[in-house]
UniProtKB/TrEMBL annotation:
Top-level taxon of the source organism: Bacteria
Family annotation (InterPro entries): HTH_LacI (IPR000843), LacI/GalR-like_sensor (IPR046335), Lambda_DNA-bd_dom_sf (IPR010982), Peripla_BP_I (IPR028082)
Molecular functions per Gene Ontology: DNA-binding transcription factor activity; transcription cis-regulatory region binding
Protein name: LacI family transcriptional regulator
Record-annotated HTH lacI-type domain positions: 7-61
Signal peptide bounds: none
UniProt keyword annotations, A-Z: DNA-binding, Transcription, Transcription regulation
PANTHER family in the record: HTH-TYPE TRANSCRIPTIONAL REGULATOR GALS, LACI-RELATED TRANSCRIPTIONAL REPRESSOR
Length: 341
């Protein structure tokens, strides 16, 4: 005979039609619960036979001081984004728990997040990029059922969710403005895949900079790659076939810029004399490209710090606590001027 599955705190919350935090407050004897609600939750607890786990009893007011980070794969551990998040979490007295999800869907996401709340985590950092339908599951009602704060990184803002993201349109504006300042007037763009929100934002920033300068920003002057060097070369070849008299190009990341430089070299187009180029990301290798690549820094370590701080502030608000009194420098892009412009 199969053993009856253990009743979880989230089961009590669902049966009582209250939040997980309310059940946690009742279980831990908190006074900030209406008496009628407290009695209702206690009745449901008795009916279901719920017993808090030993580990849950050790938590002060239902707190674990653990934040979950959800990424696409375990390689996320090595990123500057994760390192910044981990450093800020430690400074605020929190630990991080990494979980991965390769192909998010409404079913797999809800299962993952409810499993995390069963582990008494205090909040979730969602670090999976907003790309190709991977954020279609997001809605305010689903997040409400999860019962802990969820903060999204690199996700298009929408009603009912919390996000901390770089302004990628602003970063693209900085990159394109560098080309305009260098006297270039026919500026194309090799973008990332247009199913990615950050790629669409960088197209928007490129277009805004050109229109502000009174320069053409034609759809025909944009070609998409897939973030890889080979795709950058192919996109640059297509762009030059269609618009051979371009005098500059903004490339949506440095890896594609490596391929774009190769495409120019194969056509005998000298960079920057006849074709100036600006990339994006400032990867370590970009200083060693031929010529060294002018690019835009996006401080991902700082991004991780900002995300954790914002999430901890939401957790503090949920529990009626004083938020951390920390101010971080704003998320801003910085141009790195090198020989490609």
């Amino acid at each position: 005979m199969l053993k009856k599955s253990r009743v979880r705190l989230v089961d009590v919350a669902a049966a009582a039609q209250v939040s997980k935090q309310t059940v946690s407050r009742v279980v831990n004897g908190r006074q900030d619960v209406a008496e009628e609600t407290r009695q209702h939750v206690l009745t449901v607890i008795e009916q279901l036979g719920y017993r808090p786990s030993v580990s849950a009893r050790t938590l002060c007011h239902g707190r674990s001081h653990t934040l979950a980070v959800v990424g696409s794969n375990t390689g996320f551990l090595a990123t500057e984004l994760y390192q910044g998040a981990a450093q800020q979490a430690q400074a605020l007295g929190y630990s991080l728990m990494l979980r991965t999800l390769a192909n998010p869907s409404a079913e797999t996401v809800e299962k993952l997040l409810l499993g995390l709340t069963d582990m008494e985590i205090d909040g979730v950092l969602w670090a999976i990029p907003d790309a190709d339908g991977r954020s279609d599951w997001i809605n305010a009602e689903r997040l409400r059922r999860i019962g802990v704060p969820v903060l999204f990184m690199s996700t298009e803002p929408r009603p009912g969710i919390s996000t901390v993201s770089f302004d990628n349109a602003e970063g693209a504006f900085v990159a394109t403005q560098a080309l305009i300042s260098a006297g270039r007037t026919r500026i194309g763009h090799v973008s990332g895949p247009q199913g990615w929100w950050v790629a669409r934002e960088r197209i928007r920033g490129w277009r805004t900079a050109l229109e502000a300068a009174g320069l053409p920003a034609l759809d025909a002057w944009v070609e998409a790659g897939d973030w890889s060097p080979l795709s950058g070369e192919a996109a640059m070849q297509r762009l030059l076939n269609r618009v051979p008299d371009l005098d500059a190009v903004f490339v949506g990341n440095d890896r594609m810029a490596l391929g774009a430089l190769l495409a120019a070299h194969r056509r005998g187009i000298p960079v920057p004399q006849d074709l100036a180029m600006v990339g994006f990301d400032n990867i370590l290798e970009s200083a060693c490209f031929h010529p060294p690549l002018t690019t835009v820094i996006q401080d991902k370590h700082r991004h991780g710090e900002h995300a954790v701080l914002a999430l901890v502030r939401e957790v503090a608000a949920l529990y009626g606590e004083e938020p951390p009194h920390i101010e971080l420098p704003p998320l801003r892009h910085q141009l790195v001027q090198r020989e490609s412009t």
